[in-house]
Write a structure and sequence with these properties.
The structure holds two protein chains of two kinds. Chain A is an alpha/beta fold. Chain A has twelve helices and eight strands. Chain A is globular, with a radius of gyration of 18 Å. Classes of the chains: A alpha/beta, B alpha/beta. Chains A and B meet through helix 7 of A and helix 6 of B.
């Protein structure tokens, strides 16, 4: 078995990287894949909290790097999903405790046993980011429909291309349909026009995400949630499935722009 | 000359040009070693832009301007000086030299960051020293050239293009652009969609209006001491 390494990154902080990592990993595992997610945000770990596994940590990524334990020993099995594991970050160290080559080595070991290795990158473009993308086969950029997040995403896409890890894939997180319709928020089409990369997900702005994050229960596992569906769709697209974007997912602007491009009268006013 | 031999002059290519790092020592010897090295590799380096890392050396404006003249005499262009000395930095700034390279710092990380771009440097030198870039410049990318710059692709917000000559963008121009950066008021900027964050020609700075109507190719130039932009029409 040779697993694929997917790194989730954004440049800007607070756009939803960790939430996306937890949900995409959970959705992949729910589909029956063997998944391990890894928190590369050393010193500011969060992924364990979002997955509700904080109290089970014994060893962490830095322990593996420094040889105090085997990779197996640092892996924590998820409470709900048999096939989902977490490798937590160390909280008491910083990004310099790990080097890009350590990440490559650990991921090469994990590839033997897992279908997907999902890495949660820290914000920024420094060491932590380099660690996170060094082993990546694929990079997923999370952005929000706001100018500063899109600007940072653009910078990150450039860096990913320069590292020859491209082409990066894009998830637009926290789209508020009503605000887009009122013209108060960037539409997905506006974001795509600037970034010019492949879109693999549109996630609505949803307060239920906050609740699920605090509870440590990924929303991707709630069958009725639209947001959960959005994350499940991203997971399916990552496995190579063609999943259409549903119009109710807050991408009216995107579909509007598309229909305008093909000459329909339904296009929104630019 | 044995002292001079002992001094290390390390030259490596980075996105802005050539980064020269000198080992420690007295400035007169270091300067001599640098000039000898430039002389020795003269033909190979000709026309290149130099960024010299002088570390903690204190250089006043007179020393700096002598350095620039000597570098120019060797057929190269002194583009920037990196230093941890406040005096040197001030002298360099007074002379209009760069004191930072594109990642904005001289910290150890900066050198690692350079490597991101080394392989993917988009630049091809044309016959007149101009640069042709065949890709989109994303936020954080920058292209500098003493000659003209042509970009086939977009220039996104947060990216910058600085040219001694004209700038032509076959795409959307939304970042910062400076044409005629050495003071050439006849320089022009044109783009398929001219919407830069800021547009500079020689010493003039313009901030384009954010409200825009129909998008069409435009050309910007200086007329009567003001930057103006006109639609480009065929014929």
């Amino acid at each position: 078995m040779t697993g694929r390494v997917i790194t989730i990154t954004s440049g800007k902080g607070g756009v939803g990287k960790t939430t996306a990592t937890a949900n995409i990993s959970a959705a992949l595992a729910d589909m029956g894949h063997k998944v391990v997610c890894m928190d590369a945000d050393i010193g500011l770990r969060n992924l364990d909290v979002v997955l509700g596994l904080e109290n089970r940590i014994v060893y962490d990524l830095v322990d593996v790097v420094e040889g105090r334990c085997k990779v197996r020993q640092a892996m924590i099995r998820d409470k709900r999903l048999e096939e989902l594991y977490l490798i937590p970050a160390a909280q008491t160290r910083d990004k310099n405790a790990v080097a890009p080559k350590d990440m490559v080595r650990i991921c090469d070991e994990l590839r033997q046993d897992f279908d997907y290795i999902v890495i949660d990158s820290p914000a920024g473009i420094e060491r932590g980011f380099k660690n996170a993308i060094a082993p990546a086969d694929e990079v997923v950029i999370i952005t929000n429909p706001e100018v500063s997040a899109v600007r940072d995403a653009d910078r990150i896409i450039g860096l990913v291309e320069a590292e020859q890890k491209g082409p990066a894939k894009l998830v637009v997180n926290r789209i508020n349909t009503e605000m887009v319709e009122r013209g108060d928020m960037l539409a997905v089409a506006d974001v795509l026009e600037l970034l010019a990369v492949d879109l693999i997900g549109i996630v609505p702005d949803d307060t239920a995400v906050l609740v699920s994050t605090n509870k440590g229960a990924p929303i991707a596992l709630e069958p009725k949630s639209k947001t959960g569906q959005a994350f499940r769709d991203i997971a399916r697209r990552l496995t190579g499935e063609e999943v259409p974007f549903s119009a109710s997912n807050g991408n009216a602007g995107f579909l509007g722009r598309l229909s305008k491009l093909i000459g329909s009268k339904e296009g929104r006013n630019a | 000359m044995s002292d001079v031999q002992a001094i290390q002059v390390d030259i490596k290519g980075i996105r802005e040009g050539l980064l020269v790092t000198l080992s420690e020592g007295e400035w007169p010897q270091l300067e001599q070693a640098l000039l000898d090295e430039l002389q020795r590799r003269g033909d190979f380096l000709k026309g290149a832009k130099l960024i010299i890392n002088v570390d903690a050396q204190d250089l006043n404006v007179a020393a700096m301007s002598r350095l620039r003249d000597q570098v120019t005499d060797s057929g190269l262009l002194l583009w920037g000086v990196l230093s941890s000395s406040a005096q040197t930095e001030r002298s360099a700034q007074l002379m209009g030299l760069a004191t930072r390279i594109h990642d904005g710092s001289r910290e150890p990380e900066a050198e690692e960051a350079e490597e991101y771009y080394e392989d993917s440097a988009p630049q091809e030198l044309g016959p007149d020293g101009g640069i042709m870039v065949r890709r989109t410049l994303r936020s954080g990318a920058s292209v500098h050239s003493p000659g003209h710059v042509t970009i086939i692709g977009d220039v996104n917000p947060g990216a910058e293009v600085i040219a001694g000559g004209n700038v032509v963008v076959w795409g959307r121009l939304r970042g910062l652009v400076h044409a005629g950066a050495n003071g050439n008021e006849d320089a022009i900027v044109c783009a398929m969609d001219l919407a830069p964050t800021q547009l500079r020609i020689a010493g003039h700075i313009a901030i384009p209006p954010s409200e825009r109507g129909h998008i069409s190719p435009e050309i910007a130039r200086i007329q009567d001491g003001q930057v103006i932009a006109e639609n480009w029409t065929l014929g």
